[in-house]
Amino acid sequence: MPELTSLAKLSQLKDYLSDVNLVAYEEESRQGEKTTFEKALQKNYQSITIVIGPEGGFDESEIVKMKDYGFESCALGKRILRSETAPLYMLSVIGFSRELMSSWDL
Questions:
Q1: Which pLDDT score, from 0 to 100, does residue 105 have?
Q2: What SS3 state is found at 63?
Q3: Containing H/E element for 20?
Q4: Averaged over 56-67, what is the pLDDT?
Q5: Residues 22-57, buried b or exposed e (16+ Cβ, 10 A)?
Q6: DSSP secondary structure string for all residues of 64-104
Q7: What's the stated role of this polypeptide (predicted)?
Q8: Residue 36 half-sphere exposure, CB side, CA atoms within 13 Å?
Q9: Cα(79)–Cα(30) distance, rounded to whole angstroms?
Q10: For position 104, what pLDDT does the model report?
């Protein structure tokens, strides 16, 4: 069951670490990254933390700090999604991978 939190300061993200920790970063999309999100979802995990930034995205220094905390930056496909849309997209992908993917014969 997803748990939404209110806005958090960057330094507070250490309090939200899970088995898998992802931050959606638009620069990964621009650079053609395609596998981090997929590989993270293939891990055996009980909890996952996803971080979505503000409109306009994260500054590179913020991404470096989150990586220091243990987050992996990932792309969400070719499109840059709005802050309101990205969490729904990620939750849909997570739900599909956990509940439906194993029953598909791909």
A1: 56
A2: helix
A3: strand 20-24
A4: 94
A5: bbbbbebbeeeeeebbeebbeeeeeebbbbbbeeee
A6: HHHHHHT-EEE--SSSPPPTTHHHHHHHHHHHIIIIIGGGS
A7: Specifically methylates the N3 position of the uracil ring of uridine 1498 (m3U1498) in 16S rRNA. Acts on the fully assembled 30S ribosomal subunit.
A8: 20
A9: 9
A10: 59
User: pLDDT tens, 90-103?
Assistant: 999 999 988 877 66
47 Cβ contact list (under 8 Å, min separation 6): 18, 19, 20
User: What 8-state DSSP symbol labels residue 13?
Assistant: G
Output the pTM of the full model.
Answer: 0.87
What are the two backbone dihedrals, phi and then psi, of residue 21, each rounded to the nearest 5 degrees?
Answer: -130, 115
Angstrom distance (rounded) from CA 89 to CA 81: 9
Share of the chain above pLDDT 70, in %: 94
Burial class of residue 4 in the structure, from the number of CB atoms within 10 Å of its CB (0-12 exposed, 13-18 middle, 19+ buried)? exposed
Kindly report the average pLDDT of the chain as a whole number: 89
Within 10 angstroms of residue 71's Cβ, the number of other Cβ atoms is: 22
Task: Set out the domains of the chain in order of their start, with CATH numbers.
Answer: 10-103 (3.40.1280.10)
b/e burial code for range 75-93 (CB count within 10 A of at least 16 → b): bbeeeebeeeebbebbeeb
